[in-house]
Specification:
alpha+beta, two-stranded antiparallel ribbon, 13% strand
């Protein structure tokens, strides 16, 4: 059952919060994140849906997806930070973005 896969992923990935909800008991939350089919994996950051995947997945596949999603978020944050902290030109003036 997929529930045990989620539990196993949660034990292995203690660097992120992994949880599961019953969409029949949490209809508003399911609607908020666009969950219409089960099982659905949803990656949420700062209360917003960042990515999702519908269907059964092996533990290995779920871990790969999490790694890819988290890496994508980290790369975005690094790019965003590099846009803010552009190096100064030799004249001491920041080039435009």
């Amino acid at each position: 059952m997929f529930s045990s896969t989620v539990d196993s992923v949660a034990e292995e990935r203690n660097d992120i919060k992994v949880g599961k909800i019953n969409i029949d008991e949490n209809i508003d939350l399911a609607n908020q994140f666009g969950v219409a089919s089960i099982p659905t994996l949803v990656l949420v950051q700062d209360g917003r849906k960042k990515a999702s995947s519908i269907g059964l997945r092996s533990k290995k596949d779920v871990l790969k997806m999490l790694d890819a999603w988290v890496l994508r978020i980290i790369c975005y944050q690094v790019k965003k930070a590099s846009d803010i902290f552009r190096p100064l030109s030799p004249s001491g003036i920041r080039p435009p973005p």
